[in-house]
Amino acid sequence: MSTPVLELSGISKTFGAVRALSDVDFQVGEGEVVALLGDNGAGKSTLVKVISGAHPADSGGTIRWDGRPVSINSPSDSQKLGIATIYQDLALCDNLDIVANLFLGNESLHFPGTLDEVEMESRAMELLDSLSVRIPSLRVPVASLSGGQRQIIAIARSLLGQPRVVMLDEPTAALGVAQTAQVLDLIERLRDQGHGVVLISHNMADVRAVADRAVVLRLGRNAGDFPIAETSYEEIVAAITGAADNPVSRRSERTASPVPATEDK
Predict the structure, then answer these.
(1) For residue 128, which phi and psi values (nearest 5 degrees)?
(2) CA distances from 113 to 117, 133, 221 (A)
(3) From 3.40.350.10, 3.40.50.300, 3.50.50.60, 3.60.140.10, which CATH number describes the 6-91+163-238 domain?
(4) Can you give the residue ranges of every domain in the chain?
(5) Are 253 and 74 in contact (CB under 8 A)?
(6) N or C: which terminal CB in the chain sees fewer CB atoms within 10 Å?
(7) Which has the closest alpha carbon to 131: 180, 176, 186?
């Protein structure tokens, strides 16, 4: 197996007396979609924030990038490595158009104080074309876009920094069927272009549609790493709920002891 782009080993994170992560291992390779699953409170958001630099991990664990140890102590550390994170709120400005949102904070300038609108629009068209995204106009306010289109713009904006790993936090939450299909198609295109994708989701249908592996967290610990093609829905759910650790004996119809018939009197 090739060296993962991003590999975390023995990662822990505490907040006062609360231990949110305990010795968690996680990795993602180039051209791979890894789903990060778990119930509420499992530690998914904390792990994402450790990777993104929002919450540096406690001492003791190791983070490797292309096999070499690195430190992620801030969002800028994460971005410099080549990690992009798209949170659920998307951080888009509804009153600005698509081009302005794509280049927000990274505007092209003719000279100080003057925006190069032609250059930015040209780069925006090139970027969206590379993702096979069709938007009628790049100059419409983001507020007028559908939920799926807004998610796509947020993902596209993250790609301007040419990241190697893209983390998506619940990208299809509250989207309709057609909009969800748009986002899942984009995730597959990211994989085809060689990006490592981390998909945080509660939607097992989405996970089974695009993910190569599923890493399950439970109560801040690893509960399983499953190849999607070789794993049943029931096995993943059992890991999420803890049923895999606490099997309940169940009698099938074939093995159940017959119940004596009540004699009529």
Answers:
(1) -65, -35
(2) 12, 31, 50
(3) 3.40.50.300
(4) 6-91+163-238
(5) no
(6) C
(7) 186
At 12-33, the pLDDT tens digits run 999 999 999 999 999 999 999 9
CB of 199 closer than 8 Å to CB of 207? yes
- Helix axis angle for 147-159 and 177-192, nearest 10°, is 20
Q: How far is CA 139 from CA 120, 126, 158, in A?
A: 12, 15, 19
Strands 33-37 and 62-65: unpaired
Q: Alpha-carbon distance 182 to 196, whole Å?
A: 19
pTM, two decimal places: 0.86
Percent of the chain's residues with pLDDT above 90: 72
- Pairing between strand 114-115 and 109-111? antiparallel
What is the CB neighbour count within 10 angstroms for residue 162?
A: 9
Task: Identify the pLDDT of residue 1.
Answer: 53
Q: Report residue 31: phi and psi, to 5°.
A: 60, 35
Asked if 22 contacts 212 with a C-beta cutoff of 8 angstroms, the reply is: no
Is the CB of residue 220 less than 8 Å from the CB of residue 200? no
